[in-house]
Specification:
By secondary structure, the chain is an alpha+beta fold. The chain is built from 7 helices and 18 strands. It is about 20% helix and about 30% strand. It is globular. It starts with a helix and ends with a strand. About 40% of the residues are buried.
């Protein structure tokens, strides 16, 4: 079966209704039902609870508390590198931008302007730069951390669809990551500008940042922009910056002549938070 045929049912599903229901269920404290669901999830996805700060599944009051669980101290040491991996997951794609075009999968590209919600001026800072797309599977740790120290200047909520973001869907849905609901975070760093995008997906009940809290829900009907210049919101390398409630994808953008990716990186390679991602060219 082709990838396009495989994803056809997703066009027909009531994805937003399913996601809203899943968000309500995941946030409900249902006692033994919640604990049973957590145990089932751990078995199905082989979740390693020995890495969690709290390894006892029965101690989580809601599924969301379990899903966004913290890691124990020292579980993810930071590499001595200018840029470190911001998440646990796998490399979906990475490499140079072709002017403003981001490679999604064979036969599929999308523009940086579309990704950031239509702001051509913001997108223009990254022309001929670099990108990385990192996929978080259900079993992964779902907090997102800073790949380097940065000062927040802007956050943009972009409404959109809620397709799955798994590899099959990435191959089958054109412009997937610029089509789904997303939160665009813009930082100034010692190495230049950085855009870090949290991409929503089917059953991803919400996305949150440490400076704003839960961004969605509510699911706003139009692009919404927050500006933080002069607010002094600076996060150190490795500090938590946000989280997903259920799995999704992170897309990052860098300007031209900013980074050189880790030579060990390859598409589909598993990655861990804190590993070396890239060296700086600036």
């Amino acid at each position: 079966m082709s990838d396009r045929l495989a994803v056809l049912p997703q066009y027909l599903l009531p994805k937003k209704a399913l996601t809203s229901f899943a968000g309500l269920a995941a946030g409900a404290a249902l006692g033994s039902l919640t604990t049973a669901a957590i145990h089932r999830f751990i078995r199905r996805y082989s979740v390693d609870m020995s890495e969690a700060a709290n390894p006892d599944p029965a101690s989580y009051a809601t599924f969301n508390e379990f899903f966004t669980r913290a890691l124990k101290e020292g579980a993810r040491p930071l590499a001595d590198a200018a840029w470190v991996c911001p998440v646990d997951g796998a490399i979906s794609q990475f490499g140079p931008l072709e002017r403003d075009q981001i490679f999604q999968a064979k036969g599929h590209r999308y523009s940086t302007t579309a990704l950031v919600g239509g702001d051509a001026t913001l997108a223009g800072q990254f022309e001929d730069g670099h990108f990385a797309t990192l996929y978080l599977s259900p079993r992964d740790y779902h907090r997102i951390h800073m790949p380097c120290a940065g000062t927040l200047t802007r956050m943009i909520y972009v409404p959109g669809d809620l397709f799955s973001v798994n590899p099959t869907t990435a191959r089958g849905v054109p412009g997937l990551f610029a089509r789904n609901e997303r939160v665009v975070c813009v930082f100034d760093t010692a190495h230049g500008s950085l855009v870090l995008v949290l991409v929503g997906a089917t059953i991803v009940g919400s996305m949150a940042t440490v400076w704003h809290g839960v961004v969605n829900p509510p699911r706003r009907p139009r692009v919404t922009d927050w500006h933080y210049e002069g607010r002094g919101i600076t996060l150190e390398k490795g500090a938590e910056m946000g989280r997903f409630l259920l799995g999704s994808t992170v897309v990052m953008l860098w300007p031209r002549n900013t980074i050189r990716f880790n030579p060990d990186w390859a598409v589909t390679r598993p990655i861990l938070l804190g590993e070396k991602m890239a060296d700086s060219l600036s």
